[in-house]
Amino acid sequence: MRSAQIKQLLTDLDALLVAHFYQKDSIVALADITGDSLELAKKASASPKNLVVFCGVGFMGESLKILAPQKEVIMPKLACCSMAKMLEGADFDKSLETLQSLGIDHVLPITYINSSARIKAKVGKAGGFVCTSANAFKIFKHALQSKQKIFFLPDRCLGVNLARMHGLKSATLELDSPDTIKEAAVICYNGFCAVHQLFKPSDVEFFRQKYPNILIAVHPECAPEVVELADFVGSTSQIIQFVQNLPLEQKVAVGTEINLVKRLRPKNTFVLSSSVPECPTMNETTLEDLFGVLKAYKNHSPYNKISVEPEVAKWAKVALDKMMELS
Ligand code: 13P
Ligand code: SF4
């Protein structure tokens, strides 16, 4: 019933429905576009439709609005990724002060797309880049050409994982000693995704003992000790592709959000954890929210319209555009 009404409203409004893979099945089933953060930003900004209804977390709708300011972007729920919330503009400034107090005057910042527009703007102003999990390796490699120390934020796990893949020393603010920070080529902000922290090396050991030929696929937001043990590391889209290309009899345990994992394959697919890795903010959006936001828009009383202050949008776009050019 609700689904049919939503479809009708989308048609009436000529709106594009975009959903991240972590959204509930009921939402994903209705979406015109699903994808990882990079694909959603690319495909939604390239769409001819002017009205975009974004089912995801705040930074995703915000990034689209910055990349395609002519579009009207509305979100059924203004849910904020808890990792993005860990880093306010003042934290960025304070981190740079800490680095300066250690004698580190110049760093090249790279912010994961899971951050606010304000952070992206600060990074853009400082000559840095945005990256997503799908293009992080490429952006990181490019940034290394500058020969500067990298300041990676807000996800310490992604930062440490990238440093390790490039054979570089890394350190995390608040966690590592001043000497370790001074020696590191990659300095990370101390943010993390609570959902991906649930996956442990002991989970990998458990599955490998139980099924000796099992493959382990994880998202790069997982802890470095888990990523090191995995057979495959990739963005949500890359994980889906990896699993779908496996023969059905090949067992695989996947370390990412549960809605995605449950949708992957009818058999031989396991969640790499005994706890439930559910992203609370991604799961906030319901069919009722989607129906409500569309109905209000149709009745000329829109809410949850995404807007970004012009000065913030200008500099955030600089960092996002650089990422888009490189990916
Ligand atoms: P992807 O860009 O891989 O979809 O990741 C987004 C995210 O929030 C993962 O937790
Ligand atoms: Fe943010 Fe983690 Fe949820 Fe991804 S899974 S949206 S990083 S809280």
Automatic annotation (TrEMBL):
The keyword Metal-binding applies. Its cofactor is [4Fe-4S] cluster. Pfam families: NadA (PF02445). Pathway: Cofactor biosynthesis; NAD(+) biosynthesis; quinolinate from iminoaspartate: step 1/1. The keyword Disulfide bond does not apply. Keywords: 4Fe-4S, Iron, Iron-sulfur, Metal-binding, Pyridine nucleotide biosynthesis, Transferase. InterPro entries: NadA (IPR003473), NadA_sf (IPR036094). Coiled coil: none annotated. Its EC number is 2.5.1.72. This is Quinolinate synthase. It comes from Helicobacter gastrocanis.
